[in-house]
Amino acid sequence: MAALEDLTTPAKNTWCPGCGNFGILSAFKSALVESKTRREQVVIVSGIGCHGKISDYVNVNTFHGIHGRVLPVATGIKLANPDLTVVGFSGDADCYDEGWDHFCHAIRRNVDLTLVVHNNMILGLTTGQTTATSQIGFKTKSTPYGSITLPLNPIAHALISNGTFVARGFAGDPKHLTGLMAEALKHRGFNYIDVFQPCVTFNYLNTYEWFRQRVYKLEETGHDSGDRQKALEKSFEWGDRIPIGIFYKKERPTYRDNLPHVKGIPLTRIQPEETDISELIESLK
Ligand SMILES: Cc1ncc(C[n+]2csc(CCOP(=O)(O)OP(=O)(O)O)c2C)c(N)n1
Ligand code: SF4
After folding, report:
1. In CATH, what number is assigned to the domain containing residue 107?
2. Mode of pairing for the β-strands spanning 85-91 and 61-64
3. Helix (H) / strand (E) containing 194
4. Residue 269 has pLDDT above 80, yes or no
5. pLDDT digit string (tens) for 104-114?
6. Cβ–Cβ under 8 Å, residues 185 and 34
7. 145-152 CB contacts, 8 Å cutoff, 24+ apart
């Protein structure tokens, strides 16, 4: 079982003071403690961007991947060793732009892992350009006259792709986010949490204040998280009121359950057979 003090690393944190990533980091550590997850059993896979540095800040097994490829790496780890608790951390550009195809397919496959998307609605590390979730009219370095493209609705996409755990949190409410993450860690299947993560340096529009004035908790309104139609309806709510919490939760077989060649003993426990491949190498010369 992880203790909070054991989860800290000596790495110097280089996120801007006040960045929403701090809320995500503290919520995740608390969720590991709350869900009584053993530190040694956890693998974090992170993408490229400010969010990706989270790999340096949690004392578990980590893999800092390449841009947009959190999910292929996380999927491979989980399929090879299902005993591990695999958690992906991605950014909105990393997941909803560069990694969009992986996102849709991992959801429909129902790979048994958790994905947390640090959604700051901007490219942070590359100093402020629009992403797939940037708001229309948003002026950035890449859209000096304001974005003319409508943003994606990743929650709705996750629901129509048959997601089995679809949730949204807010980095400004780490206690609530801890609860969502702890639930996700317990749930078997693809657990997706989009997190509103204010970028205090480049996103002057979607600030803590902007979110605080709008977000409300689904669970406080009697929302039935077993009702997919209702969840879909809620996923389109945007404007003065924006829902956070678990939109939808359901059990269904995971990808591994139906994959014949990895169904039995985990690949990591199978001793490789000694095979002479010199003939094969010769034939390729
Ligand atoms: C293949 C590839 N394309 C582009 C880049 C440049 N790049 C570095 S970080 C980044 C994205 C950062 O945005 P986001 O995923 O939203 O993360 P944030 O920095 O906001 O956390 C990009 C495009 C890269 N490193 N690799
Ligand atoms: S640039 Fe934005 S997302 Fe990156 S560390 Fe600074 S505040 Fe956070």
Report:
1. 3.40.50.970
2. unpaired
3. strand 190-196
4. yes
5. 999 999 999 99
6. no
7. 151/121, 152/96
Answer whether 206's CB lies under 8 Å from 242's CB: no
**94 CB near ligand 1 (under 6 Å):** yes
Burial of 117 (0-12, 13-18, 19+ CB in 10 A): buried
Q: Is 205 in contact with 231 (CB distance < 8 Å)?
A: no
Domain interval for residue 137? 4-284
Q: Identify the pLDDT of residue 264.
A: 76
**What does pTM read for this prediction?**
0.95
Residue of 13, 14, 21 to mutate, ligand 2, most atoms within 8 A of C-beta = 21
**CA of residue 179 to ligand 2 center, whole Å:** 24
3-state secondary structure of 223: coil
How many domains does the chain fold into?
Answer: 1
pLDDT of residue 164: 98
